[in-house]
Design a protein that fits this description.
Layout (H helix, E strand, L loop, with lengths): L4 H35 L13 H7 L5 H5 L2 H13 L4 H24 L7
Helix pairs in contact: 1-4, 1-5, 4-5
Length: about 120
C-alpha cells in the first residue's frame, strides 16, 4: 500500500496532536499535584515550613509557575523536537514518554518531601 506525501503529513499532524494531548493531560495533572503539595499541604501546616525540603522546593516556584512551566513548556519542547526531526518520529514519541515520566516523577517526589518540622 503506497501513501502520498500529503497522507504522511496528515498522519504526522494527527500524531503530533495526539502526543501534545497526552503530554498536556499528564502535565496538567502534575501541575495540579504540585499546586496541592505547595499551597495546600497535609496537616499540621497550612503552607510548607521554610527550611523543610518541600518548603525550599515550593519557595523556588511562584504560584503561577507550575501551571506555566509544567503545561506549556513540555508541549513547546515536543513541537520543537517534532519540527527539528521530521523523519525521526520515533524519537519524538520516545521524548513524549520521557516527558510524561519526568512530570509524574517530579510530582511524586515533591509529594514525598517533608513539609513540617513537627512530623
Amino acid at each position: 500500500m503506497r501513501s502520498t506525501r500529503g497522507e504522511d503529513q496528515t498522519f504526522g499532524l494527527i500524531g503530533l496532536l495526539a502526543l501534545i494531548g497526552g503530554v498536556a493531560i499528564v502535565a496538567v495533572a502534575s501541575a495540579a499535584v504540585l499546586h496541592q503539595a505547595c499551597f495546600h499541604p497535609p496537616p499540621p501546616v497550612d503552607r510548607p515550613d521554610p527550611g523543610t525540603p518541600r518548603g525550599e522546593y515550593c519557595a523556588a516556584i511562584l504560584p503561577w509557575h507550575p501551571w506555566v512551566s509544567l503545561t506549556v513548556g513540555p508541549c513547546v519542547l515536543l513541537v520543537a523536537l517534532w519540527l527539528a526531526l521530521p523523519r525521526r518520529r520515533a524519537v519524538t514519541v520516545a521524548f513524549a514518554v520521557l516527558l510524561c515520566v519526568a512530570l509524574i516523577a517530579n510530582a511524586a517526589i515533591v509529594n514525598s518531601l517533608q513539609s513540617a518540622f513537627t512530623i
